[in-house]
Structure formats: C-alpha cells, structure tokens
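Quick look at the format.
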Amino acid sequence: MDRILQIFQNDLTCSICRNYFIDPITTDCGHSFCRTCLYHNWPNMSVLSHCSECQKAIQQTDFHTNVRLNQMVLTVKQGSLWHSLWSTENRCRIHMEAKQIFCEDQRSLLCINCSISQEHGAHRHCSIGEAAEQHREKLLETMCSLWEKCCENYRNLIVEIVTTKSWVIYVTSQGEAIRATYDELAPIESLEKHNHLERLQREGKEIFDQLRDSEVSMTNKRELLRGMYAELKEMYYKPDVQLLLDFGDILNRSEAVCEHMPQPVKAELTAVTISGMMTRFNFFKEIFSLHLGKTRAHDFLQGDLISLGIGCGIQGVPFIFPQSECFLYWGDIFFTHGQHYWELQMRDTWNWALGVCCEDWVEGNRNLQKAFYVLGCAKNDMHHSVFTTSPPVLQYVPKPTGLVGVFLDYEGESVTFVNPEESSLICRISSCSFSPHLRPIFCCCHSRLEIH
C-alpha cells in the first residue's frame, strides 16, 4: 500500500522543484510541470525551450492549467493538512482541541471554542485549509503578474543591449553620411557642417551614456524581480499552517518591486536642417508612373527583418507575419546612370519600404543578393523600427510620417533618404553594388500610394 501511495505522490510531483505541482500545465510532449517552475527555469525567459524530461523543443506559448492534475494535488494536500491539524503540537492549550480556524484579523490559529469567544467572536474567521488556498491563489496571481514584468524587463534589456552595441557604429556612419552630403554642396556651408557634426558627437555621447545607465538599471531590476518571484514561490510551498503565520507583507513587497520599471532610452538623433540640400535634389526631381502588383507579407524584406531581429522573438525565432494584403509598386522606367530624385507621401502608415531594386528582381529572380536598397519601417508590438537594407542596419531616427525623398546617385553608388519638409537627412546607403538596370520600388501593407 505504501508503495502504491509513493507512486501516486510521484505522479503529482514536479520534476523541476520536486514538490507538489503549483498550477500544473502539460506541454505538447506530454510531460507536466508547475507553471511557475517552467517559467522560472526557461533560459532568458524565451517562448521556445526544451522539456527537462525528454529534451524535446516546447513550441507552446499559451498553456492551460491541467485541471484534473490540479484537483488531485488539492486532495492530497487536504489529507496532509488533516494529519497536521490533529497532531498534539496543534492543540489549543486552553480547550485541548485541534486548532482548525484561522483568524484573519489577528492572523492566528484558533480552536472552535476560541473562535466564538468574546475576544475573537467579532473577527473574520475561516478554516485553515480554506484560508491557505485563498492565500495561495493570491500568491499565484501575483507570481503571474510578476512574471509578466520579468518578461517585459527582459525584452527591454535586450533592446538596450543591442542598441548600446550598435550605437557608436551608427553615430559614426551618420557622421560620414553628413560629411558626404555637405561635400556635395557649396563650400559656403562649411561652418554649418562643422556645427552639425559637433552636435552629432555631443548628442551621440549623451545617448550612449543614457543607454549604459539604462542597461545597468534593467539588469538590477531583473535580479530584483527574479528574487521576488523565487520568494513568492517558496512561500507557496510552505505547509498550510506555516504559510498563514509567515505570510506577512509579501504581496505589498512584491507590488513595490514592480514599481518604477525602467523603460528603454529613446535612442533617436535630432533631425537637423541642411541648407541647400533640397535645392540641389529638386534639380533632379522626377515624376513617373508606378505599376501596382501584389506580394505576400513583405516576402522581399523578410530576411532583412529577421536578421535585424525586427521579425523575431527573444531568441531569434521568426514571427509569422500576418498574411494581410500588401501593395507592391515598381516604376515604369529604369535607371542606368545619372542622378534622380523623387518623393512619396507616407502619412501614418507602417510596414512599408521604398527605394530602388534591380530589374532582374522585378522580373521574378527573388534569390538575388543585394537586389534592393530601401528604407523600411516595420511595426513590432507597439513600436516602430526604421531600417535600411544591403546591408540591413537599424536607423535610430523618428518614424517618417510625411514626405520621404529618395535621391539616387548611380555613378556615386549611393541612395540618400531625406525629409523634404525639414530639409534634413534621414540616412544614406553608400558603396552600393548597383545592377545595370534599377527601378524605383515601394511596398506597403496598409495604404495605397501617393506620389509627388
């Protein structure tokens, strides 16, 4: 009989914590764990991990409580509680009866006679088992909320780490783009060029220092959150009587830990007017017709989005982009030489790209390397990421919401993107490997095109 009971108890025990299940869930491979253990032990809080029992990949992201297993655990716990309550150590010294009642006002254990006495009669009472389960439900709810904060903080930390690592390189490349743009203008703008570059270095350093401080703050917050999560879990596992007596202010302390969550630094450079730039570009301005076609969910940008982490989960697992209607346009002319400039109205659209692509890609060869040079904007959760391709690089600039100008310098092997209304530089792709024939291209999931 003891052997059978032992096997039964083993079936109700989590292989990670070696305790009875807490909010048990069953993975797609058939093994069960505490929800809290599975979350807490996943490396880097990824939505993709491996089962500690069979090592198979766990692809699920939304787990449901195994109700039957949870009820079996509650039944076993009730049996254990019954043995504990009727032990000699848990007897009232006045009435020599088992303490079965929990006084919520004084947080003490009482026998039935004490609970109806003049001292305690007006207090709030319930059975020890019922009170313990109510406290555990509060702990579990708090752990779930705390875990969401852990994941939020980790996502923000990854953003900060990636931005910090790429920031110095980005500021340097922007400086080169600014120099190149001014060098193509009259020498009279040399003082403005100097001031512009000086401001870039000053602003770049300020943001870099903010990023480093933010990264440290998020790392410290991660340790506080995980430590609090472990403390809540430890409290959950305590026997009913000890749980009630030791509960204290743990929920208030958990709430305090979740306050003042550090947020990512807004790593964006200020747009600065470049005098004479638009006068030069407008000299090459062209208006042409574009053909409308259809493509599926930015097939032509998917690889670049994933390589930048825009279309990926925490550990680089690709998201499935929505199969929404996507409008793809390409020009009815092609460029083989010279300088060309055109503008498009973006308004408040998102998931778009504009620039140039090679003729062979338009004709159907979608496996070409460096087939297009574009500026793109992708929406991930509630955030927008601006980027360029060939090579894929994140651009730390505000999301363009008005006119965007494209300047192609075929012999200069560069494509420059500008904000015409502010006469400011968005970014510049240099050292391009253009194919013999280039076409203007625009793609967007949520808006039809306005050409200027």
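Next, a different chain entirely:
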Amino acid sequence: MATGLLALTDDVLADILLRLPSPTDLARASAVCAPFRRVAASPRFLRRFRSRHAPLPLGVLCPDGAAAFHPALPPHPSAPAARALTLATEGFSFVFLPPPARAWLLRDHRDGRFLLDRALAGGSTAFTEVAVCDPLFRRYVLLPPIPDDLAASVENPYLQRGGDGGLQSRSSEIFLASHGGDAAGEDPSFSVIWMACCRGKLVAFFYSSKSQQWCALSPPEHYALSMRRVMGVRLGQRNHAHGCFYWMITLTHRWLVLDTHRMEFNVVDISPVLSGRVMMFSNQITTLESMDGWTIVIVADVFRSDKRCVLYFYKFMYFSDRWQLQSKINLPEEWGYRFRGIIGASEGYLFIKLDHPKHNLRDPIQQNVTFFTFDIKTMQLGRFCEISSGTVNEVYLYTGLPPSQSLPSV
C-alpha cells in the first residue's frame, strides 16, 4: 500500500492531501514520508490548502509592551502546533523590529501578520510609528506617517487605551483589515485602518500596501455615536465577522460598524436586544462567522440577581437586519463570579476568560487566569490555556497555522 502511494504523481498526492479535514491532520500526514513532506511544503499546495481550511486556535497574546504568547496546552488538539510556533517565533518577542523591542506595543494580528506601534519622540498618543510584521519569517515593513493634510483633521482625540499618558496609552484605534487576496495566501499585500474619536467627529484613514498611501474614510455623524458629547467616545472590544468590524460604543447600546467591503461606517441601535441587561464590559458581546454566511452574535448576561452567567445566541445576515434569537445557554453556576468575558471565537468555539477561584484569592502563587473553549454545538467545555497572573486585562485570541504550513505574509 505504501509503495503504491509513493508511486503517485505530486498532483494526485496533492489532491489526496487537500481532502484532509484539518491542518493538524496535514501535519501528521507530512511526517509519514519524504514525498508527502515535499508536496505539503510547496507554496502552490499550501495556498490551495489554506483557502479550504480555517486557521487553528493556537493560544492567547497579552500585549504589555512586548507581547507575551501563551500557547494552547494539552489535551487541546492545537497544543503541538502551538508549541512549534512558540519555538519558531521565540515566543513572539519581536526582537527583529528596530530597537528597543519593548517600545513596541501589539495592536492587532490577522492572516499571519502583526501590527505594532511605538510612541514617537513628540510624545503623541495618537500618531505613532507603525510596523506590520511577520514574526515567523522575521520580516517587517514600517508604514509611512499619516500626511500632514490628513493629520490636521485630528484635534484632541480621546484616549482609547490606557489613561496615564504613558508608553502604552493610545488615542487611536489601529488594526489590520481583511484583504480579498489573503485567503489563498497569493498576495502579501495588506490594509490598515486608523481611527480617532475627537470632540464632534470621528476621523478615520485607510492605508493600502499596494498604493503605499493613506486616504480618508467618511465617518458617521458624531451625534449618532454618543448620547453625551461632552464625554467623548470610547470604543469597546473590536469584533469581526464576514468583512465587518463591530465596536460597542461605551455608555450606549449602539454598535459602530465598519463594512470593509464598501469601506463605509454605520451606527446601529441594538438597544432592543440589550434592554434589561447590564452591559459593564465590551467583551460581554462578540461575533462569530457561520459557514452559511450568517453572523452569530453572542451576548453574555452576567450581572444577574441569581449570580448566573447566561449566553444568548442571535444571528443576522446583514448588520442592519433584525436579530433572530437562536438559543440560550446557562454556564456552570460556579462561573458566575469568575466569568470575565469572551476573548474570541473560532470555528464554532467560544474562548472564555475565567478568573482564579475564590479560594485562591489570598495565595498569589495559585492566582491565575484560565481560558476555556466552549463548543457551541455540543456545549462541551475544555481547557485551552492558563496564565499565572491575577492582573491580566487585555488579551487576544491567536489563530494561525503550524510553521510548516505557513507562507510569508509581508
């Protein structure tokens, strides 16, 4: 049987390997023999395979000046790939960026790319030096500064991150946008969105690596963003699904939506769904893509009189549609006081952050934050990873592919 497989042409082997159900299965198959490794490592095959398979959840990133990567732990199926990625990227230390390494702050990651920035000599918390890099292949590009004629429209922007004016304070929301050519890995081009909330207006710019230019985006009217203009606007956790980005606008029951297919902003009133629920944290609401084109919205009802945490699942096809309630799930009772939000979603799984149990509160050695997976279909819980710290605030779910299946993204 093995001799027969070795006699197959590379094209036939590629067609067979493309039918493997996951990147993990491809990694196992690649270890069988040299012909399998040769076919599975070819850029042409990898582009086809990546277009058919979603990336794996490999761990969580904690931006703290220099990003700290915490890989998925056994028995999670992504643990071997996560360990290989940690070794290949030196734990996402970004030491290949212009020094000093700790001056760079992780802002976003998508499609194998990472977006970082650092404060300029002038001390601005809005205008920073921006780098897009690939830590696996140790490549990076520095973006040109936003032109003066565009920057002049930014006046006294409100802080979106931090508040002490230190090196990690930022008055801008900057992130990577989805790119149509990235799904198959055929084009290393990328796009970046830069936003700032100022008094009386929201300012947004768009950068394309193809044109290597910044251009302005038309924002929504400011009055739609906040009920109290004097307080400014602060955006919550950024969510993404099917080419749209979503932010809860602090102190409101409104969504700010950026549709990157049309490069248009919209403000959507979601108060009918959130009415009667206390929304203290922006990570009480997140989005998930379904294979049939629907956007799934998960709302966590945490601050209840019965001390329970309940998840409500809604769906819509376009963000202006009325949400349809799909299901309601009660999380375990002991999670009521430990639940700290949903950090992300991937392929039908939610990734939930839990603080350490109450009985460990006085023992700093035992204090930790645990991240669990929650299978939406089977409602099964699984341990994903753990961080030995009682003060973890901002985290990102990291999804990607094993190093052997990755292509340069910059």
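The chain has eight helices and 23 strands.

See the schema section for token definitions.
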